[in-house]
């Protein structure tokens, strides 16, 4: 197969990626989780230049998550991957003694998805990146939300109206795009199975920087690898 000059084969993922920064830049909300990390690899493989963002809000799991995210970005290092922009948006005064702040009574593996809902989460996550994009000539901000997301702030109506409101505030419209919005977890995991998923992080009750193995998100992670009949490479502090 003849490979175009502007592509190189990544030794980590086995995917062809741009050897030089792409012409089109897209913003990306990047957590350490499977979905957004897979979306990062997918956007790079599609030829985008990606500007990733992370929001440090003071939540219990963020130190471990941000550490893992740095390793993942390093593994996918490319001229098309811009340095991670980390914003501070503390929510301790808003969430107060919520489990997401204290790390106590965290929803366990038997809890429903609704148990991990954080009020206003997507509004808080996107406001600074949207305004940053608006002032840096970036027209789109991508999120890794899936079709199955059950929360009210993950709907088309919310994202469209929220982006429109911020366009009024900033004078420039930045579209919120969700490339995985019609996909289920199995489809996304299949798309990303060749990425270094061992470096992703999904736990909301980490133990010494490791996945706890008992929380709602660890259960979701374990199920995700089972969906594609793949060995889970995660080191868990506790095994069920």
Mind explaining what this structure looks like?
The protein has helices at 34-45, 62-75, 92-95, 99-102, 121-134, 156-170, 185-192, 216-227, and strands at residues 7-9, 16-18, 25-29, 49-56, 85-88, 140-142, 175-177. By secondary structure, it is an alpha/beta fold. A five-stranded parallel sheet has the order 5-4-3-6-7, with helices on both faces. A two-stranded antiparallel ribbon has the order 1-2. Helix 1 packs across helix 7 and helix 5 packs across helix 6. The longest helix is centred in the C-terminal third of the chain and has 15 residues, at 156-170. The termini are far apart.
What does the main sheet amount to? 5 strands, parallel
The average pLDDT value, as a whole number, equals 88
Q: What is the H/E string?
A: EEEHEHEHHHEHEHH
Derived from helix and strand composition plus strand pairing, the structural class reads alpha/beta
Per the principal axes of the C-alpha atoms, what is the gross shape? globular
DSSP, total strands: 7
Helix count equals: 8
End-to-end separation in angstroms reads 46 Å
Strand content: 5-15%
How would you classify the quaternary structure? single chain
Radius of gyration: 18 Å
| Share in helix | 25-40%
Q: Record the strand order, biggest sheet.
A: 5-4-3-6-7
Are there runs of 5+ residues with pLDDT below 50, and where? Answer: 1-7, 9-18
């Amino acid at each position: 197969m003849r490979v175009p000059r502007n592509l190189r084969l990544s030794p980590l993922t086995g995917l062809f990626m741009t050897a030089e920064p792409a012409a089109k830049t897209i913003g990306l909300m990047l957590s350490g989780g499977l979905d957004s990390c897979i979306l990062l690899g997918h956007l790079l493989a599609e030829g985008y230049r990606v500007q990733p963002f992370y929001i440090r809000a003071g939540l219990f799991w963020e130190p471990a998550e941000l550490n893992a995210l740095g390793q993942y970005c390093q593994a996918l290092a490319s001229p098309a991957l811009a340095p991670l922009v980390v914003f501070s948006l503390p929510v301790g005064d808003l969430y107060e003694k919520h489990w997401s702040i204290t790390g106590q009574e965290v929803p366990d593996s038997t809890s429903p998805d609704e148990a991990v809902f954080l009020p206003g989460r997507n509004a808080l996550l996107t406001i600074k990146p949207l305004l940053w994009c608006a002032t840096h000539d970036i027209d789109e901000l991508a999120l890794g939300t899936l079709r199955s997301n059950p929360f009210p702030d993950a709907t088309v109506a919310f994202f469209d109206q929220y982006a429109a409101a911020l366009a009024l505030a900033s004078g420039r419209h930045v579209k919120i795009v969700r490339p995985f919005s019609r996909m289920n977890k199995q489809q996304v995991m299949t798309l990303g199975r060749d990425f270094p998923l061992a470096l992703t992080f999904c736990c909301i009750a980490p133990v010494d920087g490791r996945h706890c193995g008992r929380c709602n998100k660890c259960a979701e992670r374990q199920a995700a690898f089972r969906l594609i009949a793949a060995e889970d490479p995660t080191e868990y502090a506790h095994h069920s």
